[in-house]
Structure formats: C-alpha cells, structure tokens
Amino acid sequence: MRTKMLWLNLTAVFVVAVGLMAQGNEPLFGTWKVNVEKSKYSPGPAPKNSTKRYEPYKGGLKGTQDTVTGKGEKQHVEVVGAFDGKDSPATGNPDVDSYAFSKTGERSYQIVQKKGGKVTITAQTVVSADGKSRTVEQTGKNAKGETVHNQVLWERQ
Question: Torsion angle of alpha carbons 129, 68, 115, 27, nearest 10°?
C-alpha cells in the first residue's frame, strides 16, 4: 500500500512538473520592448516606448504592459487569461475592457481586444524562430473609429 501511494505521489509530481516546464517554454513568455523605429503605426501616433511581459500564471498567462504614449501619457495595463479564446478582463487601457488569447501555431497567437463587448483590434503575433523578436500586426478600429493597421516589432529583453 505504501509503495503504491509513493508511486502515485511521484507520478502526480512528475505530471505537474512537466506541465509547468512546458508552460514556461511558451514562446510568447518573457519581457519584450517595442522597437519604435522598426514599427509602423497607422493612424498613429507611435508610443514613445513600451515594455510588455507575459508570464505563466495559474495554468494560463499574466500580461503586464507599461507604455508612454505618443502624447507622453503613462499607461500600466494588466490582464490574466488563458490561450482559450475567451474574454479576460483587463485594467489600465481606457480603450480595452478585455483581451481574448488564442494560440494559432507553434510560435503564433491571436489576441482580440474588446471594448463594451465589441471587437476593436485583432492582433496576429508571431515569435521569430530564434525567439529574439516577435512581430505583431494589429487591425481594426480605434476608440475614435479610425481604421488601425499597425505593424509592430518587439525585441526580447
């Protein structure tokens, strides 16, 4: 009986450890800084700077972003979610109530922003094969109703 319980406990520890290791290896996870010079913002303006961190959190992810907007305003955005396509409440961005994260490939993701339950921006994100950068293509409408088409380069820190 003791041997059986020991094996069950060891198996459970192994399963949890493998799950955590796999989650920690998610290509999106890490700290990223926007390269404003190599990015294109339409209609703009581009941010002065922005740093984003994605990390494993309770079987999903936690995202935080600190930005100085083109107008010099500071924003601190936080969201906790999962790669399940479901809306996750967010704080800190007056134009976004929720984000929905989906994994679309080995190194690619879709992130949908909503305000008042309505999709505003859809972002397609691809992490480079070497993991040193990621590109994000954002399309949709901003809070002013303007068409958005941003191409943003983020570099791993």
Answer: 20
pTM of the model: 0.83
Instruction: Confirm whether 90 is domain-assigned.
Output: yes
* pLDDT, tens digit, 9 for 90 and up, residues 99-126: 999 999 999 999 999 999 999 999 999 9
Q: How many CB atoms lie within 10 A of CB 91?
A: 10
Tokens for 145, please give them.
Answer: 């109703």
Radius of gyration (Cα) for the chain, nearest Å?
A: 18
d(CA 13, CA 93): 39
Q: Do the domain assignments include residue 91? A: yes
For 40-75, write each residue's pLDDT tens digit: 999 999 999 999 999 999 999 999 999 999 999 999
Give me the domain span that covers residue 35. Answer: 28-156
For residues 140 and 148, give the distance between their C-alpha atoms in angstroms, rounded to a whole number: 5
Residues 6+ apart with CB under 8 A from 86: 100
